[in-house]
TrEMBL record:
Name of the protein described by the UniProt record: Transcriptional regulator
Any Pfam family matching the protein: FMN_bind_2
Alphabetized InterPro entries for the sequence: Split_barrel_FMN-bd, TR_PAI2-type
């Protein structure tokens, strides 16, 4: 089922390098699949692999994947957002809500082979490791042996991608800047450079 993304042109970004940076910073994806009985959604972290493909994994009990076939999906990665009150601006402006997100249409292949899924678990843990002592799955670990059959890997092939970065670009530049500063002040500082890049992207 094809989706028809809508947004005002001022807020759309198609800078591919910037969009992938955003996904790396905010990998938790909201995946939506249309099935015969309606829409089903799941929150699943996805990570950039080779050739601009993404990988992840989910529980075999997830009804989104229980037919074990490839499927089409709409995916959203959400980043910082904030209510922007009138006092955030230099001039008189009405309040709004600013946000950052990347939308993607993709084909998702379900991976059933245990050896491939173990590799996905290993790569996922490497991406999320904060030190050399961080958890890494061990194929001999009884917990891993027990749970691996219940895991299905995901290979995500993007078909369309765009950023939707609503940062008061429709306001005078001084208000655009002050609204972004408000957003930065209300989100983790480690993402300052990324958020600022969204303006210049």
């Amino acid at each position: 089922m094809k989706t028809f993304p809508f947004h005002y042109h001022e807020f759309i970004c198609k800078n591919v390098e910037l969009l992938w940076r955003f996904i790396d910073a905010y990998p938790l994806a909201l995946i939506t699949r249309y099935m015969s009985n309606g829409f089903i959604t799941s929150h699943i972290p996805l990570f950039q692999g080779v050739d601009k493909m993404l990988f992840g994994h989910t529980d075999r009990r997830n009804p989104m994947v229980n037919d074990l076939v490839s499927f089409e999906a709409h995916i959203v990665f959400m980043g910082p957002s904030s209510y922007i009150p009138p006092e955030a601006y230099k001039n008189r402006q009405l309040p709004t809500w600013n946000y950052t997100a990347v939308h993607m249409d993709a084909s998702i292949d379900i991976i059933v082979e245990s050896s491939m899924n173990l590799n996905i678990l290993l790569e996922t843990s490497e991406r999320l490791a904060t030190s050399k002592d961080s958890f890494r799955p061990d194929k001999e670990d009884p917990r891993v042996v027990k749970n691996l059959p219940g895991i299905l890997g995901l290979k995500v092939v993007p078909k369309y991608i765009e950023g939707r970065f609503k940062l008061s670009q429709d306001k005078p530049f001084v208000d655009h800047e002050s609204a972004m500063q408000w957003l930065l002040d209300n989100n983790p500082s480690e993402f300052d450079s990324l958020i600022k890049s969204l303006i210049n992207g």
